[in-house]
Amino acid sequence: MSEHDSPTIATTVQTSETESTDRPTVTTGHPVIESRDLSVYYGDEQALQSVSLGIPNQQVTAIIGPSGCGKSTFLRSINRMNDLVDTATIDGELSLEGTNVYGDDVDPVALRRKIGMVFQHPNPFPKSIYDNVAYGLRIQDETENLDEKVETALKRAALFEEVEDQLDESALDLSGGQQQRLCIARAIAVDPEVLLMDEPASALDPIATSKIEDLIEELAEEYTVVIVTHNMQQAARISDTTAVFLTGGELVEYDDTEKIFENPEHQRVEDYITGKFG
Ligand SMILES: Nc1ncnc2c1ncn2[C@@H]1O[C@H](COP(=O)(O)OP(=O)(O)OP(=O)(O)O)[C@@H](O)[C@H]1O
């Protein structure tokens, strides 16, 4: 786990004794993203069940759990990507730095500039390496010192040295791991506050995966990173905080990553982590 100078987070997990449901209510010291009783439905199917958690600033938060438990749904709720699904409806609250992400006056496109996203399969545009990174800056009309901004983003994404002599060449000619780091450079070029990553390394080989993991830890020195991963070793290696979702979109436990992996409160979490199901 990273040792950077993030604020100390006091994580409290209240279990069911004082509550009518068996779900934890989790609060953290300085959450940058906060969900309160967030439920998401696709048509009649409930994909998230009243999820309450606070995601701490400038740390890596991992979301883990078996297939179909709502990890991606939670991630996509943060930047309103679920708005793009016709059947999706949302109940409850989700805020970014205290502002309701689902408020009437919030423009989802502007919101997604503050909340960058990286997907499982690298998806560079069929353009040059340079134009990929410059894309969001041009849309926002932030073209002053564009070369410098592109270079900085590529450096932050640990890609610059590998591509500095081929910035005008097609991004599609890069390896899968390089393409994924390019997508990270594209996401951070516009200086978002939060980076969401949905299985960012699952399509990559072990060496490329290890580079992405190192990069994620470095990025958390500047950004709040939320990563969905199926890979529990990866969550244990790179995250500071871990949320465990189980079947039916229930957040069962949320705590410091070390605690989740070494001494979880819930038997179901221990069973999942030790591979008894999922
Ligand atoms: N666009 C959609 N339309 C209808 N149902 C959906 C949609 N997206 C997800 N679901 C359903 O919502 C539930 C949660 O899906 P989600 O993709 O969030 O889970 P996940 O934990 O990320 O799964 P995986 O690990 O397999 O990617 C599943 O039952 C899934 O079938």
TrEMBL record:
<keyword id="KW-0472">Membrane</keyword>
<dbReference type="InterPro" id="IPR003439">
    <property type="entry name" value="ABC_transporter-like_ATP-bd"/>
</dbReference>
<feature type="domain" description="ABC transporter">
    <location>
        <begin position="33"/>
        <end position="273"/>
    </location>
</feature>
<dbReference type="Pfam" id="PF00005">
    <property type="entry name" value="ABC_tran"/>
</dbReference>
<keyword id="KW-0378">Hydrolase</keyword>
<keyword id="KW-1003">Cell membrane</keyword>
<dbReference type="GO" id="GO:0005524">
    <property type="term" value="F:ATP binding"/>
</dbReference>
<dbReference type="InterPro" id="IPR017871">
    <property type="entry name" value="ABC_transporter-like_CS"/>
</dbReference>
<feature type="region of interest" description="Disordered">
    <location>
        <begin position="1"/>
        <end position="29"/>
    </location>
</feature>
<protein>
    <submittedName>
        <fullName>ABC-type phosphate transporter, ATP-binding protein PstB (TC 3.A.1.7.1)</fullName>
        <ecNumber>3.6.3.27</ecNumber>
    </submittedName>
</protein>
<dbReference type="GO" id="GO:0016887">
    <property type="term" value="F:ATP hydrolysis activity"/>
</dbReference>
<keyword id="KW-0067">ATP-binding</keyword>
<dbReference type="GO" id="GO:0035435">
    <property type="term" value="P:phosphate ion transmembrane transport"/>
</dbReference>
<keyword id="KW-0547">Nucleotide-binding</keyword>
<dbReference type="InterPro" id="IPR005670">
    <property type="entry name" value="PstB-like"/>
</dbReference>
<dbReference type="InterPro" id="IPR027417">
    <property type="entry name" value="P-loop_NTPase"/>
</dbReference>
<feature type="compositionally biased region" description="Polar residues">
    <location>
        <begin position="8"/>
        <end position="28"/>
    </location>
</feature>
<dbReference type="InterPro" id="IPR003593">
    <property type="entry name" value="AAA+_ATPase"/>
</dbReference>
<dbReference type="GO" id="GO:0005315">
    <property type="term" value="F:phosphate transmembrane transporter activity"/>
</dbReference>
<dbReference type="GO" id="GO:0016020">
    <property type="term" value="C:membrane"/>
</dbReference>
<keyword id="KW-0813">Transport</keyword>
